[in-house]
Amino acid sequence: MVGLYIRVSENFAVVGVRDKNVELTVSDILDVDVVTTTIAGSELVGAMMAANSNCAIVSHHTSKKEIEKIKKVTDVHVVETNMTCLGNIVCVNDKGAIIHPEADEKIENAVRKRLDVEVLRGTVGGIKTVGMASVVTNIGGLLHPNASDWEVKKIEKTLKIEVEKGTVNFGQDMVGSGLVANTKGYIAGEDTTGYELGVIEQALGFIGF
Fold first, then answer.
1. What CATH number belongs to 2-203?
2. How far apart are CA 116 and CA 108, in angstroms?
3. Rounded Cα–Cα distance for residues 209 and 35 (Å)
């Protein structure tokens, strides 16, 4: 479940588990600066934080110590909201964002202003936790296999990328829980099959058709 414990952008990553091998792997494969911390006391930083190259957004339940650690690699914006799992409810790259249809207005405003992207409310595969039902970079994206044609078009237009539908970890459809990526590389769960890896590499633009 690498996507639950890691949040990645083009130039930084936040890792929730203190493990030198994990830190080195993320730094090497994704070519990013890495910081290790919890967010709101949770190791599930991939679920707790939304981010792109411009900023990281966390809830007000995040401690000052945690915020200071994240600030070593990026700016941090704190939103006063009880929807603490911002990584779950925001699908974002450096060009656009799709957010949970019932997300607080404060979250939408923060994504628009601090992450500096166009924002639309929507679902992926009918799922409101769009951040876990998708993995996107500035080039491509992998979506929940049940994503509709309408959802695909909406995401491609807003985030200005091309996407594919697929799974990770031998059939896991919540792809955001088992995959992290930027335009320089990706890390998938160890149970991901060869076929799934092929779809991932195509979806993220690492191989052509």
1. 3.75.10.10
2. 11
3. 36
Phi then psi for residue 3, to 5 deg, are -70, -20
pLDDT confidence of 1, banded at 50, 70, 90? confident
Task: Give the residue from 16, 183, 164, 161 showing the smallest Cα distance to 87.
Answer: 16
The CA distance from 7 to 16, in Å, is 9
From residue 133, alpha-carbon distances to 11, 28, 166, 200, 207 in Å are: 23, 26, 10, 14, 22
- 3 state DSSP class of 68: helix
pLDDT at 208: 60
pTM reported for the whole predicted model: 0.96
The dihedral through the CA atoms of 198, 11, 110, 64 has a sign that is: positive
* CA–CA gap between residue 168 and residue 193 (Å, rounded): 7
Extents of the domains making up the chain:
2-203
Q: Which amino acid is at 18?
A: R
Confidence (pLDDT) at 146: 98
Q: Report helix, strand or coil for 55.
A: coil
* Strand ranges (E), 24-130: 33-36, 50-51, 56-59, 76-79, 90-92, 96-99, 118-121
Element (H, E) at 199: helix 194-203
Residue type, 193: T
Express each pLDDT in 65-78 by its tens digit: 999 999 999 999 99
Sign of CA dihedral 96, 92, 193, 27: positive
